[in-house]
């Protein structure tokens, strides 16, 4: 697939590019700032845009802003944001606008798990929503005054975490070594116990879960 | 302003023997003798100044400095210099000094000291010396020197004793007079040479400005360190993790694979700890997304449930956000660590350009800003921002920590 890559650290950008090419993807452009990213994404119309959050000239969250801008484009590219921050607010910003294309928020550390990372790239490009497990963990471990998560069984909490990462039912079934029907039952229980609107597509499911967890 | 001098006056109000036997008469004497010495030196300098009159204007500067030090003879409280730090360069120095009221007040003092004060000092010292000489009349008579005082000639033992009997109380009175002169002169010197209220206020203003600059510089330095870590160590570690991951794919299974997995895990741990470190130095989420998001993240990391009520509709100046953030951070830490709180509420509002932030916990209370360095630091930090910081923490709780930070119009 065709990918446009943005990261201001040259070494890392090149490392990522060669990693992606190793998995058979084409890196149409590898750029170092948000402006160049927007130009390259609109010129090459890639299947996936991968960007760092922090880029010049202000070194704040320009990459995230560029990703949000691109998600308003038509056709909408899939966007994977790589970040150094576990703060859930970034992921929330990125996921807030609804969109048909895939979207992901991963810690940069994840590129070390090559196969995991390649999997995440493929899933986002395929239209799924992917949230870094560390970010999800931070949400799940947050202490709440009246903790409705307490009503969940340990297994249901586990399933909730994987749902928030953007995993599909089938994937969750495989990971937990249980049947699809069991997963569906767990999810039904979770939605009922947490008073969440019924599951629809993947992105809305993740959003619902995250929105709930952040409140 | 009359601190020192009041010491002399107080001593004079005591019983005569206590005053006369105390150190004060001697101090006053020393002070006046010094004044005479300085005044004589000044007279010579003034005469020399005829050659180049403009130099006279600056004569007050060294004399003022010397006289402020000399006031210590009569006063325990030092008199600070009324002169601010001059502008850089020789020209700047001249412009600064000529523009200051203090310079001209010192000049007035110089002229007064070299004229009226010198005269008064000489008269009062002369009177005292006369009294002492008369008191010593018996000694003169003993050695056979006739003692003449105006038309009066003292040459017999009886007359000499009578003279002494007269001179001893006169000396005592003279010491009182001399002390009064010294005290008055010191008050006059203090009045002219000490900084005026406006000058003191300006110094306070300068100090608070420099404190602000210091805090800003400190903050800038933190950001620089954060940026260096982010652009340097962190990127290299990500790259290392990636290379290790690739190597892991290459070697297949075996002993090397296990070692590589260990190395990967270590790289991940290093990345996690460097991320924590960077976050502690400067939370990027604060810069990027503002105070509510950053406080939200603090709440997510907190071991106790935190209710946040922070509806801010706009970004605040960076310094205000940073201060507010660290206040909440410290308050949460204290609530968890010391107060044993089970629930914490963070709320904030902006009313007329002032951010009011309160953090309340239901812990055991009894927090004292005077004992904890953390609270003390927050109070200092808030003060630099012209804000106020209050802690109410009765024993048994609840503890409420409140800061008001002016946000300015920027």
What is the compact description of this entry?
The complex is a heterodimer of chains A (215) and B (410). Chain A is α/β, with parallel strands linked by helices and 215 residues long.
Give the arrangement of secondary structure elements.
The complex is a heterodimer of chains A (215) and B (410).
Chain A: E1 2-6, H1 10-22, E2 26-31, H2 34-44, E3 48-52, H3 62-70, E4 78-83, H4 88-95, E5 103-107, H5 114-125, E6 129-131, H6 133-141, H7 154-165, H8 169-176, H9 180-194, H10 202-214
Parallel strand pairs in A: 1-2, 1-3, 3-4, 4-5, 5-6
Chain B: H1 3-13, H2 16-21, H3 24-49, H4 54-57, H5 60-70, H6 89-98, H7 101-135, H8 137-143, E1 147-149, E2 152-154, H9 157-193, H10 197-251, H11 255-281, H12 284-289, H13 291-301, E3 306-309, H14 318-337, E4 344-351, E5 354-361, H15 373-384, E6 388-392, E7 399-406
Parallel strand pairs in B: 3-4
Antiparallel strand pairs in B: 1-2, 4-5, 5-7, 6-7
Walk me through the structure:
The complex is a heterodimer of chains A (215) and B (410). By secondary structure, chain A is of the alpha/beta class. Helix content of chain A is 51%, strand content 14%. Chain A has helices spanning 10-22, 34-44, 62-70, 88-95, 114-125, 133-141, 154-165, 169-176, 180-194, 202-214; strands at residues 2-6, 26-31, 48-52, 78-83, 103-107, 129-131. Chain A is globular. A five-stranded mixed sheet of chain B has the order 3-4-5-7-6. In chain B, strands 1-2 form a two-stranded antiparallel sheet. In chain B, a hairpin with a 6-residue loop joins β6 and β7. The longest helix of chain B has 55 residues, at 197-251. The interface between A and B is large, with 37 and 44 residues.
The counted number of beta strands of chain A is 6
Mean pLDDT rating of chain B: 87
Global outline of chain A: globular
Helix content of chain B: 55-70%
| Cα gyration radius of chain A (Å) | 17 Å
Give the termini separation of chain A.
37 Å
Main pleated sheet of chain A: 6 strands, parallel
Largest interface: A-B, 37 and 44 residues
Largest sheet strand order of chain B: 3-4-5-7-6
**What percent of residues of chain A are in strands?**
5-15%
What is the arithmetic mean of pLDDT of chain A? 87
User: Approximately what portion of the residues of chain B adopt beta-strand conformation?
Assistant: 5-15%
Largest beta-sheet characterization of chain B: 5 strands, mixed
Number of helices of chain B: 15
Strand-pairing-aware structural class of chain A? alpha/beta
Order of helices and strands of chain B: HHHHHHHHEEHHHHHEHEEHEE
The radius of gyration computed from the alpha-carbon positions of chain B, rounded to a whole number of angstroms, is 37 Å
User: What characteristic shape of chain B results from the CA principal axes?
Assistant: elongated
Structural class of chain B: alpha+beta
Low-confidence stretches of chain A: none
């Amino acid at each position: 697939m065709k990918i446009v890559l943005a990261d201001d650290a040259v070494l890392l950008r090149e490392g990522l590019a060669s990693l992606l090419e190793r998995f058979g993807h084409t890196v149409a452009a590898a750029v170092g700032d948000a402006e160049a990213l927007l130009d390259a994404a609109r010129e090459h119309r890639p299947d996936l845009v991968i960007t760092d959050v922090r880029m010049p000239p202000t070194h704040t969250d320009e990459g995230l802003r560029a990703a949000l801008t691109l998600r308003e484009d038509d056709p909408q590219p899939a966007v994977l944001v790589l970040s150094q921050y576990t703060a859930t607010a970034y992921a929330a910003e990125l996921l807030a606008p609804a969109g048909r294309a895939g979207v992901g928020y991963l810690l940069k550390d994840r590129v070390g798990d090559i196969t995991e990372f390649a999997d995440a790239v493929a899933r986002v490009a395929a239209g799924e929503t992917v949230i870094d497990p560390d970010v999800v963990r931070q949400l799940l471990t947050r202490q709440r005054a009246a903790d409705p998560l307490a009503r969940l069984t340990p297994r249901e909490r586990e399933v909730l975490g994987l749902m928030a990462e953007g995993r599909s039912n089938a994937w969750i079934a495989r990971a937990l070594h249980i049947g699809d029907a069991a997963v569906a039952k767990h999810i039904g229980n979770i939605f009922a116990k947490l008073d969440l609107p019924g599951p629809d597509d993947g992105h809305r499911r993740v959003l619902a879960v995250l929105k709930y967890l952040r409140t | 302003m009359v601190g020192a001098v009041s010491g002399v006056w107080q001593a004079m109000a005591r019983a005569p023997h206590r005053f006369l036997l105390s150190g004060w008469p001697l101090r006053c004497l020393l002070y006046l003798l010094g004044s005479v010495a300085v005044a004589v030196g000044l007279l010579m300098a003034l005469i020399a100044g005829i050659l180049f009159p403009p130099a006279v204007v600056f004569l007050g500067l060294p004399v003022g400095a010397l006289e402020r030090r000399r006031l210590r003879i009569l006063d325990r409280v030092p008199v600070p210099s009324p002169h601010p730090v001059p502008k850089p360069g020789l020209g700047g120095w001249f412009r600064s000094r000529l523009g200051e009221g203090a310079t001209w007040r010192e000049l007035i003092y110089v002229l007064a000291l070299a004229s009226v004060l010198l005269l008064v000092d000489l008269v009062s010292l002369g009177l005292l010396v006369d009294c002492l000489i008369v008191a010593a009349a018996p000694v003169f008579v003993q050695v056979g020197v006739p003692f003449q005082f105006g038309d009066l000639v003292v040459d017999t033992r009886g007359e000499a004793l009578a003279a002494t009997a007269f001179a001893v109380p006169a000396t005592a009175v003279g010491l009182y007079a001399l002390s009064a002169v010294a005290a008055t002169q010191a008050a006059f010197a203090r009045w002219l040479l000490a900084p005026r209220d406006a000058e003191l206020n300006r110094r306070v203003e300068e100090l608070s400005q420099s404190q602000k600059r210091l805090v800003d510089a400190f903050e800038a330095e933190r950001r620089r360190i954060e940026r260096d870590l982010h652009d340097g160590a962190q990127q290299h570690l990500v790259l290392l993790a990636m290379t290790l991951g690739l190597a892991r794919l290459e070697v297949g299974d075996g002993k090397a694979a296990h070692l590589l997995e260990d190395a990967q895990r270590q790289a991940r741990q290093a990345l996690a700890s460097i991320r924590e470190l960077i976050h502690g130095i400067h939370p990027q989420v604060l810069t990027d997304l503002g105070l509510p998001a950053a406080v939200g993240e603090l709440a997510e990391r907190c071991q106790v449930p935190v209710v946040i009520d922070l509806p801010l509709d706009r970004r605040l100046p960076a310094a205000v956000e940073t201060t507010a953030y660290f206040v909440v951070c410290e308050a949460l830490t204290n609530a968890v660590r010391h107060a044993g709180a089970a629930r914490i509420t963070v709320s904030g509002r902006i009313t007329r350009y002032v951010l009011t932030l309160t953090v309340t916990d239901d812990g055991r209370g009894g927090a004292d800003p005077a004992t904890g360095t953390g609270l003390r630091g927050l109070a200092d930090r808030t003060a630099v921002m012209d804000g106020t910081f209050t802690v109410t923490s009765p024993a048994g709780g609840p503890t409420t920590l409140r800061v008001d930070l002016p946000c300015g119009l920027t």
